[in-house]
Design brief:
Strand order of the largest sheet: 5-6-7-9-8
Largest sheet: 5 strands, mixed
Radius of gyration: 42 Å
Number of strands: 9
Helix content: 55-70%
Shape: elongated
Structural class: alpha+beta
Number of helices: 21
Distance between the termini: 76 Å
Strand content: 5-15%
Length: 689
């Protein structure tokens, strides 16, 4: 992106923020005044000629409600709370979208539309009859809010998917513009249409939005995504059902029907902001918020309490026919209080399922990961399956698995596209670091529901075991490769030594013997010299043979045993500046031949490193048998081993010799603190005689 484009985008983003703050401030003023003016507006009945407000009831409707135990004061309180809760739900989601998506144009637009529509759907414009400026502000917000269907056609991608949805979206936009510019036109302004015709038109567009989302849900592979669309569809259908019911005559005559219509209508309006917010978070921001989860729980709980109280009061009122209203209210309040905790638990579970999906059920998540691990045919496909499963289950854009093979972390598998935020979780097995799990989210624990945080630890343990399995398999594979390479190198060296050294010596001896045979009797002195030369060459050849045999297996091990061989080795490396202390009293007299060679070569390599690199004055060697294992330590008081030397050829050779026999070789070393090598070799294979 060039600098000009960046500057234009920054300027457009700044303008969008300025518009957001202006409309949010206007919405806040209109909402506060509306709730203040409407606090007691619905307790008094309106005249039978007509009510000024959509929520107001006449005397006959109140009389019907009174038979159910709902007096005007209770109805007024229920209506006020219902409107306030729905308004706050839109504001809560809108502010969260602004907080976490302030860099994204679509999230800013979604936030603004939720705040504006949450305001206009809760405003009784007749309340502003004596406040012309508030009325102007409301009318302006109403025009902006009328664009909500255009916005819903863009949900959640920020573009028209499929492309043909741009046609109905633009037609709706044109209808809003014409209605604003031509308010008196009987054709272009839908507000002037027959109420039934307008209802059909509005419901058709809303159903089209719902149909598009449902069609998308069939193509979505994510269960959480499909669940969000179902919530959106339920909210939209409830909103449409409430709006449609308002045109039926029975609603106008029966107070209970009107109250139920309000509950259905505003239940739909309550669900829509959260489903829209979830879809925007999932698609655009791709990270969830604890605050978003809490807002869902408490707003959901509040409206459930309002509905439960209203239904209980109404139901008990119908049962007692209004004769003991005080007792009904008391019983209802107590019953709702008793139900509060179970309802809260159910609300939390439902909300967590909506927000977190599979993460709400750790058993299901871990079971799914286990199935993917079982289905991985090779260790090459194991970690890619882990990365994919974690990314999809946590609904994050990126997941990667890194393995520590001893020389730093190596990224073996990745899924998705890396984003701006990234965190790394260390993976350990029995205290040994085996790698890292890299997640495309700033705080991994925030992606889990409250009370389910320990599930992340269980997930990490499973991933750690999978990484360790791959790590050991890969190390075994690499070790076998090194063994094959070392074997071939050893064969090449033997071939070279036999051909170039011993072979050429034997050929030369053959020539000298032939020369001596020809000169025998004629030139005795030259014949004798040839025999002397052959004798010297035979001695050199014997030395070569001894050297080759010693390199294959030191003869001293077979002749005198490991204890004497280590003493001889210590004497070879000891000098006035280095004292080597050998504790060999606990070395078994009989050991497997492979273990003897391994210990001898490891000590030889360790002493070579001490002499060359450590600068030590004292080196202690101890070998003993314990718990069916041969244990060896080589410790010096030198300068320590630098990190880069821990993966050198000599160090790797010692480790490989131990691992070839199923053992273990480890180092404890600090700069200036000396080095301690610990070796453990199993003796279960038996001992040689």
């Amino acid at each position: 992106m060039d600098s000009t484009t960046t500057r234009l985008r920054t300027a457009a983003l700044a303008g969008m923020h300025a518009l957001w703050w202006a409309l949010a401030l206007l919405s806040a003023v209109v909402s506060i005044y509306n709730h203040a003016l409407g606090f007691d507006a619905y307790a008094a009945p309106c005249s039978n000629d007509g009510c000024f407000s959509f929520f107001q009831m006449n005397e006959a409707q109140f009389n019907r409600l009174s038979l159910l135990g709902i007096d005007p004061g209770l109805y007024n309180a229920l209506t006020f709370v219902l409107l306030t809760v729905q308004n706050l739900s839109s504001w809560a989601v809108g502010i969260l979208l602004y907080r976490y998506g302030w860099k994204d144009f679509y999230c800013l637009t979604a936030s603004l539309m939720l705040i504006v529509t949450g305001t206009i759907f809760n405003v009784d414009d007749p309340l502003f009859a004596d406040y012309p400026r508030l009325m102007d502000g409301f009318l302006f917000l109403n025009v902006i809010g009328s664009l909500y269907l255009f916005f819903l056609f863009l949900l959640p991608y920020g573009r028209f998917v499929p492309r043909w949805t741009a046609v109905p979206a633009l037609l709706w936009l044109a209808g809003v513009v014409f209605g604003y510019l031509l308010p008196d036109n009987p054709y272009l302004n839908s507000m002037n249409w027959n109420p039934i015709l307008r209802l059909i038109y509005v419901n058709a567009v809303h159903l089209l939005v719902v149909g598009v989302q449902i069609a998308r849900s069939r193509k979505e592979s994510s269960p959480e995504r499909r669940r969000q669309i179902r919530w959106f569809a339920v909210g939209m259908l409830a909103y449409m059902a409430g709006g449609t019911a308002s045109l039926f005559p029975a609603v106008g005559s029966e107070g209970i029907f009107k109250l139920l219509m309000h509950l259905v209508l505003y239940s739909g309006l309550f669900l829509l902001p959260f489903s829209i917010g979830l879809m925007a978070f999932e698609q655009r921001i791709r990270r969830m918020s604890k605050a978003f989860n809490r807002a869902l729980v408490y707003v959901a709980l509040s409206i459930m309490m309002v509905m439960a109280y209203a239904l209980l009061v109404g139901g008990l009122g119908l049962l007692f026919r209004g004769r003991v209203n005080d007792m009904i209210s008391l019983l209802s309040a107590g019953f709702v209080a008793v139900l509060f905790q179970p309802l809260r638990s159910q609300a939390q579970t439902a909300v967590n399922r909506l927000v977190y999906g599979d993460r709400e059920d750790p058993h299901q998540l871990l079971s799914g990961l286990t199935k993917r691990l079982e289905g991985a045919l090779t260790h090459h496909s194991l970690l890619p399956a882990v990365a994919e499963t974690i990314a999809q289950a946590l609904r994050i854009p990126y997941a990667a698995v890194e393995v520590d093979f001893g020389n730093g972390d190596e990224r073996i598998a990745a899924y998705g596209t890396p984003g701006e935020s990234e965190s790394a979780i260390p993976l350990d097995v029995q205290g040994e670091r085996v790698g890292r799990l890299v997640l495309g989210i700033e705080e991994p624990r925030a992606a889990w529901p409250p009370g389910r945080q320990t599930a992340l630890d269980d997930l990490i343990r499973q991933v750690s075991i999978a990484v360790q399995s791959v790590r050991l398999t890969e190390e075994l594979h690499r070790s076998r490769e090194r063994i094959v390479i070392a074997r071939e190198e050893e064969r090449r060296r033997l071939r070279r030594d036999l051909h170039d050294g011993l072979g050429s010596s034997l050929a030369s001896m053959m020539l000298r013997l032939d020369e001596a045979r020809q000169q025998h009797g004629r030139e005795p002195a030259q014949s004798l010299q040839a025999i002397v030369t052959v004798q010297a060459q035979m001695g050199a050849a014997l030395d070569d043979i001894r050297r080759l045999v010693y390199q294959l297996r030191p003869p001293v091990l077979d002749e005198l045993g490991l204890r004497f061989a280590l003493r001889e080795l210590a004497l070879q490396f000891q000098d006035p500046s280095l004292e080597i202390r050998l504790d060999d009293a606990s070395i078994p007299s009989e050991l497997p031949a492979a273990a003897e060679v391994a210990v001898y070569r490891i000590v030889q390599e360790a002493l070579t490193n001490v002499v060359r690199h450590s600068g030590a004055k004292i080196c202690r060697i101890r070998a003993w048998e314990e718990d069916g294992e041969l244990r060896l330590t080589v410790e010096d008081d030198g300068i320590g081993m630098a990190e880069r030397n821990k993966s050198g050829v000599g160090v790797r050779s010692m480790k490989e010799r131990a691992e070839e026999l199923g053992g273990h070789c480890a180092w404890d070393s600090e700069i200036g603190g000396g080095t301690r090598i610990r070796v453990e070799l199993p003796l279960a294979g038996g001992r040689s005689a």
